[in-house]
Structure formats: structure tokens, C-alpha cells
Amino acid sequence: ISERIAKSQRYAEEGFGTPTSRLQARVTSGLLSIPQAAAGIVQTVTGDRLGGETYRGLGEIRQAFTGQGEATFPQKLAEGLGSMLAFGQIGVGLRAGLSGLAKTAPRLYRWIAPGSAAFAEAATEAGSLSGDMLQAGRSVGDARKAAALNFSLNLPIIGITNKLGIFDDKVRSRFLKAGISFLMEGTQESAQEWAQQWPAGRPIDWGAIREAGLIGGILGGGIGLMGGFGGKRMAEAPGAAVQPPVPTPAIEAQGVRG
Fold this sequence. Notes:
Layout: H1 2-15, H2 19-45, H3 52-66, H4 73-97, H5 101-104, H6 106-135, H7 140-164, H8 174-197, H9 206-225
Helix pairs in contact: 1-3, 2-3, 2-4, 2-6, 4-6, 4-9, 6-7, 7-8, 8-9
């Protein structure tokens, strides 16, 4: 991990001198936030016996990409894009893995697929919070309680907003989908920011909550305009299409001679 940190720092110093490259670095940092949060889950579940070094190492790699200064709004937007793309691919992968369910229980599939993605995202948010708390010297007990509360708050919010927003497969108008996704993702990100603050006992920063909502809305609206992560209607899902009946040749009735 230390070698990767050093390489990332050299890469950041040599390659991130332009505004475009700095935005690319922020997208990379957002992508790396997902495995870092997974390490936080392991760290919390094992009582800080495993995962701590990985969580710290990935955090230092992300910091090498982003630098020490305060991020600008476009940079925060780019980092949010990296995180959202990672979560989106997780959701798409889960939907593909569960596509067999579409053959036997399409209605159940419509809820289980986004629900599974919501579970993964809520767990990741909880792992990020508890990992940060443990790195700050908080006890394992405090981190676990905060993570459990964070997860229970995020799961229904993420599930509902994903289902109605970027993972919805019923809205056909891209402009309507963009508007709905803007509202849903903005609500989700605001709630997630609040759920990162209150369970940890931090003062509520309403400015950060509003900014998170705006970033989520912009990204959600953009992805919604491109069609979202929901794919086609269930009738067009892999393996769920209803095949037209195969015509059979007419059979002439022949009389029976007496």
C-alpha cells in the first residue's frame, strides 16, 4: 500500500497540473471511495482487527489524487460523478445477475433489483462513516452504533429514490426522467449527508447538506437525461420477452369413411 501511495503522489505531482486533469483526479478519487468504504465495513465488523490499514492506505491514495486544498464545486461534482458511476455499475451488475428472476416473477424483480443496489449503497455509506470514525480514534462501539443508524436511515431513502429515479425503467421521456432523477438524487444525497453527520454526533452543517443535494441533483439529472441505469422495460428485459406464437400449419379434417 505504501508503494502505491508513493506512486500516486508522484503521479499527482507530475500529471495533475491542468484543470482538466484535476477533475479527472477527482473522478478517480470518487471511484476509489467505494473500495475504501468496503474496507471500512470489514474494519467495523472485525472490531478494527482487519481492514484498517487498507482503509488508511486508500484514503492516502485518494488524498494524493485530490491534494490538500479545499475542493472547488466542479471538483466536488467530478468526485461525486466517480462515486455515482461506481454505484451505478454495481446496480447494473446486480440487475443483470438477477435477470433470471424476471422470467418467473417480473414484479418481484422490479423491487428486488433496485433493492439489492440500495442495500449495497447503504452498506457502503455506513462503512465510510464507521471507517472515518475509527480513523479519528473513536471506539469500535461508537462506530458500530453510528454505522447501524446510518444504514437504517439510508436504506429506505436510497431504495425509494433509486426506484423512482435513475433506476426507473418505466419513464420513456428523457426530459421527464431527468427532472425526476434531479429531484430524487438531490433528495438522496442531502439525506445521506445528514446521515453522515447526525449518527456520528457531529454538528449539522446545513450548507454541506444543501451542496450535497445540488451535486446529487445535477448528476442525477444528467444521468437521467441519458436514460438512467434502469435499462429497458421489464417486457424487454433479458429472458423476459414474450415470444410471439409460432404459427402451425393448418390440418385438414378428413372424414371417416363408414
